[in-house]
Each structure stands twice: as structure tokens, then as C-alpha cells.
Specification:
With 166 residues, this protein is of the alpha+beta class. It has helices spanning 4-14, 83-92, 150-158, and strands at residues 64-65, 96-97, 106-108, 111-114, 131-132, 163-164.
Length: 166
Amino acid sequence: MKRLLPLLLVAAFAAPHPALAESGGGNRKGAAASTAPAAPASGIDFGDDSSTWAHDGECDDPRFRGEGMSAPPLLAENEGADAADCGAAFKAGSIQLRPAKITSPAIHEGIDFGTDSSEWAQDGECDDSRFRGEGMTATPLLDQDIRADASDCLEAFKAGRLELVR
């Protein structure tokens, strides 16, 4: 058995990794995707690589946010389906898990931040027009997002990057 252990270790490290098995060698949108499960890192189950956008160098899983994400909109069908890209971005520190959605009105310091019912909730930018500051989105503000982006607005408010103006 002692003689077999080194051989088993060499064989294990010499075997190709499923995430590297993409044909063509490039990170192309729409390339063939491996569906091998990704090993959990930090207790996160990244899922598999069954997404159309797997192996493109951007995380497309809507459970995450950060610089390593693809441009919106993020599709629910990609949840747990872009393991290699999301695992690599998480390991590099360019994405993190989104906090749990706020489903009951969040009140802090007497301010009703509402819920996370906006399409743009949990994107790292406050979309509520009642606020101003560094934590705001640069996109046009919509009345439908008032009290509908609680996680983003509350996080920025607590960090001192927002103030309530109305």
C-alpha cells in the first residue's frame, strides 16, 4: 500500500481538471460547457458549469455580486450553473455572496428602507431616489425603486456613503 500511495497521488494530479476540459482552449461565450460539479470553497456550493455562459471569465450566477460579475441582467437560470468562473472570481476576491434578500420592511434609525423587491436590488448600488451620495447608482432613478432596494441602500447608509434627502 505504501508503494501505491505515491502512484495514486501522481495520477490524481496528472488527470485533467473538468473545468479545463473545454475544447478550443478559449473563453468564449457559448462554448461547450462541462457539467462536472465544482468543489465547494469556503462552504459555498458553486454548482456546475451547465450555463451557456460558463467558462467565459465572468461569473453569471445571480447569487453573487462584485467586479467579477457579467453585466446585468443576471438570469435565474444561471444560479449554480457557472461554477468555474464564479469559483475563480470568489477565490480572487472579485465577487462575494449577496446577502439574503430583505422581505420585510427594514427600519434603521427611524428610516424605512423597505424591502429588496426592485429588479435592481442587491447590485451594490442604491436605487432609491430618497437618498444621495457615493453609494447611489449612476443610472436614472425610478419611482418604483423607492423603498425597494433595502440591502444596497441600508449597507451604503451604514457605511456613511448615503444620506436621506427626502
